[in-house]
Amino acid sequence: MNFFKRYISLTFYILIICITMPASDTVLRVGLHTFPNSLNPIYSTTEDSQPVINKIFDSLYYYDREGKITSDLIAGATSSLEKGRSVTRLTLKKGIRFSDGKELDANDIIQTIRTLKNPVYNYPYLSTTDCIDSVERIDSYNLIIRWSSPIVSWQNHLTFKILNSRQISNVSPATLRKLNLSGTGPYVLKSVMAPVRIILEINKFYSVHEQKLNSSMNHPMYRYIHYDVFTDAYLAPLKLINHEIDICELQPESVVSYSRLPEWQKKFRVISYKKSGYTYLVFNLKNPAITPNLRNHIYNTLIAGNFVERFLEQKGEPVKTPFLYHNSHEASKRLNTFPLKPVTLKILTNSESKVRKEFILFLSEELKPLHITLEPFFLEYNAFLDYLKKGKFDLAVSGYMMDTDYNMNEIFHWDSYFNYSSFRDDQMELLLQKGLMEFDPVKRESIYTEAYEKWKKSLPFIPLFSLYYYVGVSRDVPVPTEFYSVVSSEGDFLFNISHWKPKISKSL
Fold it and tell me: Which of 81, 146, 399, 467 is deepest in the core (most CB within 10 A)?
């Protein structure tokens, strides 16, 4: 019995040491607040999926730390107009390998595009591939993409993850969803312990390739990345202090506390960054109670009024237009309204976001004088997404990550995955298509100004704000000089993970 007690005590002691050990030169521990809905890049739609997927898969193009589109797997590219359509010729980098050892070639890009464009696979971003008419192999490293029209921002449509043709050829949709796909990124999926942990291990083929290109690879990356999930975001500072995690997103309130607590400052640093996107209020247009007059009243409160500014209290920046390029100079005028009859509406958001929940509660009070009663419902994130897709709401507060461009087809297109409002306007779609085809920047801005005016007349959703984001990083983790200060729709704060190196252990 005494032996059993000593065994239990020793096991508990070892467990505590393991949990609270500082960052090592082999494992980087990253905190997440929700468990990813999918690690398959075809079906992932949540922000907590993207950081994991970005470590496993690469794209033809990506957005760099300044938000500029940059080549990833592409060695060279040219684009020209032929018979009134854009034609792009791509040359792939040589020596890139998937984690199963297969060398990247043109067939992988062709099969990826064909899979994404095939409606049977239900790719959530299917509308973004509509502009690709065909793709043709020239040889192992060269291919041609023919677009359905002239297109100025063609690189923005090639940021999807490239998949291994050997795995995805001739598989059923059900099989594809279950596959553990290999990528060309720096890491490979090692294990999934839902709903608490995901472990990635370094892709040995990636490190061999990078060492040829980058002498800094002589200072190796972390061998493993552990993604640990805890739903209470306010525990992040304590987990950083107790050496349970090395990096995690922080709530604004925690950042305020950090500035006042020297003990926290000794244990971790705080880095701020921005996301290219915004939080927005979406209306279910299938509900006859969601009238244009009601939407105009809410617009006047949120955009033409100063409610958003009062709510934010310097936690972020107000957004006054869906087209972010207009945001810096757009002055919002009040829309015409007439008195409302009393109405009660259900409003949803995800329970994990304290900011969104607070916004709904404040908005509920603000709208009462207009005879609008809001009934808040706070749902677990995946349940919230399910309610949005099935139209089980009147109003909802969600978020949208976007590319650094005017294009908003993913929300406005009638059959887009993210068109939660059930909005359909053929003239709006024609305008957006025209904007994609216009090469003259002045004319292009004019097109989207017209689209902005059309949006104000329909208001399927109202953009609200873009928050400031903060990451806590353990003092034991060296921070690279070039980290991501701007994160786009396809990125994450640790997107350039190969630049995040552990401290070099000194020989004894």
Answer: 467
